[in-house]
Amino acid sequence: MSVLPSIRWGILTTGKIASWYVADLVLSRPDAKVRHIVQAIGTSDVNRGRSFAQQYCPEETPKIYGSYEEVYRDPDVDIVYIGTPHAFHKQNCLDAIAAGKHVLCEKPFTLNARQAREVFEAARQKGVFIAEAMWLRHRPLTLELQRILHQEKAIGEIFRATSDFGSEIDIPNLPLDKYYRQNAMGAGSLLDMGIYSLTWVMLSLDDPELAPNRTKPNILAAQTHWEDIELTTSAILQYPSTGRQGIVTSTTVANGNPDLLARIHGTAGSVEVHGSCASAPTAFTVYPPFGGESGANVTRGPGKRYDFPVLGRGFQYQADNIALDVLNGRLESSIVPQSETLRVMEIMDEIRRQGGTRYPVD
């Protein structure tokens, strides 16, 4: 029996996203590529850290630290997972890098592209691995969909794609200390949810043969605000070299369609992606072209559905890929390279510029 390679994680914070990540790290699964060890947990409340460990990794014995700095200094930690709020990502990354730790930082990687460049440069100078935790790109469903779209060309030449992510959050009635009421923290729908809509559209419209030198599309964007908090974003992406267009939408005013995360149109058919929300796909269906006359008697033939049951929430695929990158001596993700993180951040910067959303760090 072969022995799996192992990697030791230091976890920053005990919030919701960190709880999801840790629970998936320690799942017992036959397809595991790496043994993930929760070595340390950093939190401002040691008692909360102990409760977190007992609930989400009960068979592990992580060290519980009352500060992030102790996680960075722990010689037994190989890589730090940063699950703090958006506005803290830059400094958390820089501190971990300065301590010589490899880093996986939650999306959005930073509040803007300028911060991302600063972090990547610090990692380059220190010679450590760093990547954005865009788990959607690591999922088997996403990788298979890209193969079917761009290698098999199952729906012909792609010419447009749409994706939406909506989650109803009563922002005006939230307490002032909540994240969604704080512009300086990066609040709003775009960085939280629109980044997923944007990712679906880019994965659909990008030409894989141009990686890693993909160009940025032209952007036309609008945003709606309550006070200084962005509520709804809509953006059109247009790729000059191919003419392909995408529509990206996100909102905190209403929930999105629970079973239509993205729709991709090609000259020989279309694809619909299904799941509970744009960050959690579970299936997609490839359809032939619509039949009938335009505007009347339009029909659609039966599609071929591809299902991807997920154990846990699906963070384990990202964890395996990132760990293998680190263990193989790479300094960036083979799935989400730094150039792609920067390109997404630059597009979101432009959407915010046109939509009128500014953060103090801009």
UniProtKB/TrEMBL annotation:
E.C. numbers: 1.1.1.179
Pfam families associated with the record: GFO_IDH_MocA (PF01408), GFO_IDH_MocA_C3 (PF22725)
GO MF, any single term: nucleotide binding
Reaction catalysis annotation: D-xylose + NADP(+) = D-xylono-1,5-lactone + NADPH + H(+)
Record flagged with keyword Oxidoreductase: yes
Entry annotated with the keyword Protein transport: no
Occurrences of domain GFO/IDH/MocA-like oxidoreductase (ranges): 149-272
Top-level class of the enzyme under EC nomenclature: oxidoreductase
InterPro entries from the UniProt entry: Gfo/Idh/MocA-like_OxRdtase_N (IPR000683), Gfo/Idh/MocA_domain (IPR050984), GFO_IDH_MocA-like_dom (IPR055170), NAD(P)-bd_dom_sf (IPR036291)
Domain Gfo/Idh/MocA-like oxidoreductase N-terminal span(s) in chain numbering: 7-130
Family: Belongs to the Gfo/Idh/MocA family.
Protein name: D-xylose 1-dehydrogenase (NADP(+), D-xylono-1,5-lactone-forming)
UniProt source species: Aspergillus brasiliensis (strain CBS 101740 / IMI 381727 / IBT 21946)
